[in-house]
Amino acid sequence: MINGRWVAREARGQAPLLACLFVLAAVLSSIALAGPVLLDRLSGHALGNRVAAAQRQGELLVTSATMVAYQESDPGSGEVVVGQPESGEMPAALEQAGQEIRDAARSPLHGLLKTGSIRTEPVLTDIRSGVPGSPRAQLSLLYADDAPAASAYAEGGPPPALPDAALNDGRPIPVAVSTQVRDAYGLKLGERLDLGGDFTDRVVLSGFFEVPQRLGDVALFRQQPGLAAPLTETRGSGGLTVRRALAVLDGTGLEILQGRHDLDVQLVWRTRMTLGDERAKAIAAADGGAALQRALGRFRRDASEGLCPGAAAGAECHLADRRLFQPATTNELTAVVDDFRRDRAQAGALSAFAVAGLLAVAFATVVVTAQLAVRRGAFTDRLQRSRGATALEVAQARLAQTGPAVLLGAAAGYAGVRAVVEEEIDGGLTVAAVVVALAALTLPALTWFSVRERKAEPGRRTGARRAVSGRRLMAETAVLLLAVGLVAAIRVRGDGASGGASGIDPQLAATPVLLGLATVLVLMRLYPLPVRFLARRARARRGAVAFVALARVGRTAAGRELALLVLVLTLATAVFGGLISSTAAEGRERAAAWNAGGQAAVVTPEADAGTAGALSAVPGVEHALAVRRADVGLESATDGRVRGTTSLIGLDPEQLRAAVPASPAAAALLGAEPEQPQAQGESTVLPALAAGPPAAYEGRTLRLDGTHGKALSVRIVGTLDNAAAGDPALGPVSGPSAPPSLLLVDAAAMAQVDRSDIETAAVLLYGAKLDPVAVRSTALTSVGPGAQVRMLDEELDALREDGLLRSVLLIYTASSATAVLLALLAVVLELLLSAPERGRTASYLRTLGLGSRPTALVHFLELLPMVVAATVGGVALGLLLPDILGPALALREFTGGPGARLVTDYGLTAALAGGLVALVVIAVAVETARGRRRALGSVLRVGETK
After folding, report:
1. What is the DSSP letter of 295?
2. What DSSP designation does 664 have?
3. What pLDDT score was predicted for residue 542?
4. Is residue 174 over pLDDT 90?
């Protein structure tokens, strides 16, 4: 049995090492507990920001239905009869229907939905009496529950409610317009207007409201710009000018208007999803948003069922005694959540890899600490064995010494994380318990291994040595095969997860350790080769310093595996973290430039040279350029086969070069010197530059399939390189990435394409100081509510503030910094482990007459190969990780845009390597200083041979 007083006395003697174990246990528990909490918190922040940004231009959950005037079914016969519902019920009925739509949503979507707006589609009418200065003027009527309040009126007030008698007495329906519409149409308060079109009626102007300065900030004016000011358009070949404006009316006015003319009114309920930080974090942490994704996917059916119960089975639907038909819901939020889930899975994989690597470094440091403790306590352990204690009892005694320190460290880590995050951290307790248990059992296990009984077999030393060498070779082969198999499995599975409900990915968790071990094993086999070569060369030269140092490297190499593992994993994690940071920084700029095209982009299918001219009047705009895209098929003239879909993009290269002199796309078009479109038989031939599969047909003419109007063909006059195909000017009309199949033509050739074939278009704006408010206001009034405005600065800010990317960068920064500190501790402990041997060598050299400087040089040369091997292996592993693991650690989701590439942080890499060399220099200096004060008799004994 082990004496308890001996355990306590040994614990006091091992106080520094127990303090190291305390710190390491605190670090291990903190890493295991804080990593998931940090990722969940920032993921929730990212989800909330993405949903808010997606709804900035308007609500993405829109339910609509057609309301038929005064029709209801007789409960007995089921025949349709005409009734006379009471007026004034419409607003309350619409609000109640909106509440039923929101209540029908499933958890966790239920409770997140708020009222956006309730409106009708504008009822189009002409002003029959005409408006001065306009051949034709329209004044469409709109009901909106978010119409301007009474305080917004400069003259008059909102339209008043009408009594039931107004249905038959022919009185005019009160409406209100903006002051800008008033001035444009020359209207006066109380003026009556005769309306025509599909029906005839009369309205009276009850008031004029002020238009907000920032139209883009008010949803009603952003989605209905004709409410702010008349929109002008030219129709037909005769150039008929039409001005369109909107007026708001009261709910009773809508009821009276519908009752008088039996109108079918299109009702629209807009629903907004509101995510607070806590709800967003809970949703992201629970299942990464999977439940929210499912609820959104079912919302189309649920909303229709909430608005019209049983409509799917053929039941009739009524609202305020009026019948509803064709309930439908558009849902664009599902795509936002889908993108978030994919990006979060990738962020989780990257973060898990960093945390797993850091845990491996920490645990390796624990092993180094335990080795030092075993060496220092070897004499007392053997003494206890000689007194009758078994190996297991000695190990239990070590556990009694280290267990309290490890448990206290784990408790300190838990308390520290709990105090910082200020919330429950139960999610990582299992992992924390496992790593803390391993840390506590490491020293007892090594102690048992060192004092266990070994059977002596005289005369078989050589065979035993060969057996050990064979077993080591088999173990190394097994590790390498495991590493290769794990990498292959991860690459095959792609970016999917292999973890279960716990969220732990065992494959990624094991990857850093196995890759680090494989790298160390390769280094241990390779780096002694050049050392032996240099040792042979040093033997033939004068001087003993280099030969002694290199000879010692060969003898001590086998004991440096743990130190190499710590350094390799630390450098690999830090270099890979720097790679992520640099790649993300450059990728954000590329993605923002690709999304915006220029300093700003107004994206709408109607954009053309005329739109560019209108937007060029915005203050600060120096250049405005129209870019248009049509999706076409390429038909070979020889076999008539259509070869996929190709993006045909057209722009003016002269304007683009004037705006961006270094534009690759402009240089490619101008360098090709394309001819003007020419008629060839029944087809018009457009000269084009090709990228992707069409580039294989250079010099040939291909017919365009799927176009309207006149027949078109393209002649491939040249090809586009990656820079030209990825020119930011093509981004706003191309989507998130460059088209895989692209034809680029100039504006003259694109003008031959029928307007109905234009898939999307954009006007790119260039200028040093663009006012976002002015750009959005002009886009709304000149283009309409369908225009999407993208500002370069806003795109870049949105990418920078993305919580998922921030979480990855923060975790890698913290992991790299912590790993560097742990590596420093591990190297110091390793130097302490080998200090007695180096001290003996220094004493021998001093006995042979060498001074302090040659001795210091021996120490430096002895440690230098390990530093070089660790630097080469760690840096190489960090740089090759994206290629080794492929899609599992891909950075595409965090770079965006075409031409995204990996960017190495050479400054960080050089700093890490330099810091490692500096550490060795400091260690050598300390060892030399200690050696000067050390007496030879403290390390040498009479009669000892070497």
Report:
1. H
2. H
3. 64
4. yes
Phi, psi of 544 (to 5 degrees): -100, -10
E-assigned strand segments in 596-709? 600-603, 623-635, 642-651, 678-680, 683-691, 701-705
- The H-or-E segment that residue 467 falls in is helix 461-493
**Mean pLDDT, rounded, for 48-57:** 81
pLDDT at residue 888, rounded to an integer: 66
Amino acid type, 531: V
608: region left, alpha or beta (phi > 0 left; psi from -120 to 50 alpha)? beta
Residue 502, pLDDT above cutoff 60: no
Classified as helix, coil or strand, 773 is helix
Contact of 479 with 523, CB cutoff 8 Å: no
Distance CA 80, CA 68 (A): 12
CA distance 72 to 78: 9
The DSSP secondary structure of 841-873, one letter per residue, reads HHHHHHHTT--HHHHHHHHHHHHHHHHHHHHHH
Q: Are 581 and 905 in contact (CB under 8 A)?
A: yes
pLDDT higher than 60, residue 72: no
90/100 Cα distance (integer angstroms): 15
With CA atoms as reference, report the closest residue to 147 among 254, 242, 60.
Answer: 254
As a whole number of angstroms, the distance between CA 365 and CA 700 comes to 66
Helices (H), 527-659: 528-539, 545-556, 561-596, 609-615, 653-659
From CA 61, how far away is CA 300, in angstroms rounded? 9
Residue 163: asked if its preceding bond is cis (omega within 30°), the reply is no
Token pair recorded at residue 520:
């160390």
Q: Which residue has the higher pLDDT, 48 or 641?
A: 48
Residue 416 has pLDDT above 70, yes or no: yes
Contact residues for 705 (Cβ-Cβ < 8 A; gap 6+): 632, 633, 634, 635, 642
DSSP string, 207-224: EEEPPPS-GGGSHHHHH-
Residue 268 forms beta bridges with which residues?
64, 119
Residue 939: which pLDDT band, with cuts at 50, 70 and 90?
A: very low
CA angle, 204 then 210 then 214, to 5°: 140
If you ran DSSP here, which 8-state letter would residue 161 be given? P
DSSP state of 943: T
The answer to whether 724 and 691 are in contact (CB under 8 A) is yes
676: helix, strand or coil: coil
- H or E segment to which residue 879 belongs: helix 852-885
Asked if 117 contacts 221 with a C-beta cutoff of 8 angstroms, the reply is: no
Token duo for residue 176 = 């209100």
Q: How many CA atoms does the CB half-sphere of 52 hold within 13 Å?
A: 14
- Is a pLDDT exceeding 60 seen at residue 440? yes
Nearest to 323 by CA among 258, 271, 261: 258
Q: Please classify residue 397 by burial: count the beta carbons closer than 10 Å to its beta carbon, then call 0-12 exposed, 13-18 middle and 19+ buried.
A: buried
Amino acid at 601: A
What is the rounded end-to-end Cα distance, in angstroms, of the chain? 39
Longest dimension (CA), the chain: 129
Q: What is the pLDDT of residue 357?
A: 80
Q: Is 880 exposed, middle or buried (0-12, 13-18, 19+ CB in 10 A)?
A: middle
Residues 767-794 have pLDDT tens digits of 888 888 778 777 776 776 667 888 888 8
Question: Under 8 Å CB-to-CB from 441, ≥6 apart: which residues?
Answer: 399
What is the rounded distance in angstroms from the CA atom of residue 513 to the CA atom of residue 521?
Answer: 12
The CA distance from 689 to 324, in Å, is 53
Residue 452: name the closest of 395, 412, 500 by CA: 395
